[in-house]
Structure formats: C-alpha cells, structure tokens
Amino acid sequence: MGDDSSLLGFGYVLTLGSIALILGFVGSRERPAKDNSQSQESVAVSSPPAVSGEATASEIVALQQQCSQLREQLQQQKTQLTEDFQEATFEQIQTLLTNYPSAQKMAQAKPDLPAKNLIALFTPLENLLQSWGVESIGCAWEQIAFDPQLHQPDEDDITVGERVYVRFVGYRQGDRILCPAKVSRTLPGGAQ
C-alpha cells in the first residue's frame, strides 16, 4: 500500500507540474497587448521557447483542452486519494467501530461494569495514531513542569516551570502541536 500511495503522490505532482507548464504557456500567449509592458528580455526568459514561430489558434485550443483534461484527472486523483485514505483508516479502526456500540449498551445496562474491560477496545485507535506518527503529550494525571508550548492551563496565572497535572493528554505530530495537553494545579476529585 505504501508503494501505491507514493506512486499516486508522484502522479499528483507530475499532473500539477504539467498543468502549471500548460497554464504558463497558454497564459503567456493570451495576454492582451496592454499587459505586454515587460521588456522583450523578460518575456523571452519567462515564455517557453516556441518550436516553429507563434502558436496557432488550433494549438492554443488543443492546449486548453489538454489543460481541461489534466484538471479533470487531478480532480479524479484527489477523489481517489480521499477514498483510499478513508478506506485505510476505516480498516485500522474497524474493530473499535464495530464493538463500541455494543460496549456502550453493555455499560448502560450494567453501570457497575469495570471500565478496564473496555480499554482493549481502544487498541486500534492507538495503532492508527502510531501509524500516523501522532504522539501523546503527557499521560493522564501525570505531574509535569508547565510549558506553554505544549500545555493549556485551566488558570491564567500558571507560570512556566510550575508543577501541574495533566488532566487531558494532548497530541503532536513531529514538531507540530495538534492539540495541547490540558493541565491544572490539582487532580480531579477522587483521583489519587
């Protein structure tokens, strides 16, 4: 599947490059006379070389048709990539999605059911995040030093380096913070 996605990505880049080249060629040929205030030197540099003189009207129409076809192919590739992404994601969390409704009914029917019996349901979700390179910021109820780059405090007066508890984990992907961890000076009631 990795090879298929890299081939699709290469095709996507190749298609975009072709469209840019064609649009540049067609655009340079269709400028009105009043926009040609550039020197001949700069036009020669920015225009693709003409093989046999100026492009004819039929060549321009052919290029416009090719551009239209490339745009359509690009839209089809975008649709296909979206469908492939959704299918791959669904496959990874299918177990969670199929078991969650039953687990929810069971929890409603038996409110004293230990939550630890449901934790295994979330393994597919953890695997999905791992495959995307998404890491958690902190662990629930862990005490850490406050960092405003990684944490969202529940009070405005928490200072950098102050010891706080992670109430809700955050997530990061590489250097990008997807959502900061929510932190507090105290643990929730009943927590030890």
Describe the fold and architecture.
This protein is of the alpha+beta class and 192 residues long. The protein has 2 domains: 2-96; 134-192, Nucleotide Exchange Factor Grpe, Chain A, domain 2. The chain has helices spanning 2-29, 40-46, 57-109, 123-131, and strands at 134-137, 143-145, 151-153, 163-168, 170-173, 176-179, 181-184. The strands form 2 sheets. The chain has a 4-stranded mixed sheet with strand order 2-4-7-3, with no helix packed on it. A 3-stranded antiparallel sheet has the order 1-5-6. Helix 1 runs antiparallel to helix 3 (57-109) and helix 3 (57-109) runs antiparallel to helix 4. The longest helix is centred in the middle third of the chain and has 53 residues, at 57-109. It is flat and about 80 Å long. Mean pLDDT is 79; it is low at 28-47.
Keywords:
192 residues; 4-stranded mixed beta sheet; 7 strands; 3-stranded antiparallel beta sheet; Nucleotide Exchange Factor Grpe, Chain A, domain 2; 15% strand; alpha+beta
- Our Rg estimate from Cα atoms comes to 28 Å
SS-based class = alpha+beta
Number of strands: 7
Number of helices: 4
User: What summary fits the major beta sheet?
Assistant: 4 strands, mixed
When the domains are counted, the total is 2
- Taken as a percent bin, the fraction of beta residues is 5-15%
What's the shape?
flat
- pLDDT < 50 runs, ≥5 residues: 28-47
Element string (H = helix, E = strand): HHHHEEEEEEE
* Helical fraction: 40-55%
Residue-averaged pLDDT: 79
Query: What is the terminal separation in angstroms?
Result: 45 Å
